Amino acid sequence: MEIKVQSIKFDADQKLLDFIDNKVGKIAKYYEDIVRTEVNLSLLADPQNKNVKVIVYIPGTEIIVEKNADTFEEAIVDCVGVLKGALVSAKEKRFK
Fold first, then answer.
1. pLDDT of res. 94
2. Is the pLDDT confidence value at 42 over 80?
3. Over the stretch 76-89, which tens digit does the pLDDT of each residue have?
4. CB of 35 within 8 A of CB of 27?
5. Phi and psi at residue 84, in whole multiples of 5°?
6. Which helix (H) or strand (E) holds 63?
7. 3-state secondary structure of 93
8. Which DSSP letter does residue 44 get?
9. Share of the chain above pLDDT 70, in %
10. Of 24, 49, 68, 80, which is least surrounded by CB within 10 A?
11. Sign of CA dihedral 43, 45, 64, 75
C-alpha cells in the first residue's frame, strides 16, 4: 500500500513521517485491496490546531476521515481508529 504524506505550509520531521507510516500502514490488514492512502497535515488557527485528513482509496470508492487535535500524533491515532471501522464495514458490504 502506498502512503503519500503532504504537509501544508510546514515541513514534517522524519519522526512524524515514521509515525504516520507505522500507524497508517496497519490499516492494510482490515482491507487488503487498498489502492493508496493520502495523509494531509495542516495547521489551523484553533486551539486544537493540528489537522489531519486521511483519504483511503479502495476499488469503487474512497473513505475520508478528518480530525483535529493538540498534536498530529493524536489526530492520526483518532483517524486510524475511525478508518478501521469504516474499512471493516466496506469490506463486509463488498463481500456479502
1. 80
2. yes
3. 999 999 999 999 99
4. no
5. -55, -50
6. strand 61-69
7. helix
8. -
9. 99
10. 49
11. positive
Superfamily of domain 2-94: Ribosome hibernation promotion factor-like (3.30.160.100)
Which candidate, 1, 19, 17, places its Cα nearest to that of 57? 1
Q: For residue 68, what are the β-bridge partners?
A: 51
Indicate if the pLDDT at residue 95 is higher than 80.
Answer: no
**Rg, C-alpha atoms of the chain:** 13
Tens of pLDDT, residue by residue over 46-74, are 878 999 999 999 998 999 999 999 999 99
Cell of 92: 463486509
Is residue 60 within 8 A of residue 33, CB to CB? The reply is: no
CA distance 61 to 46: 31
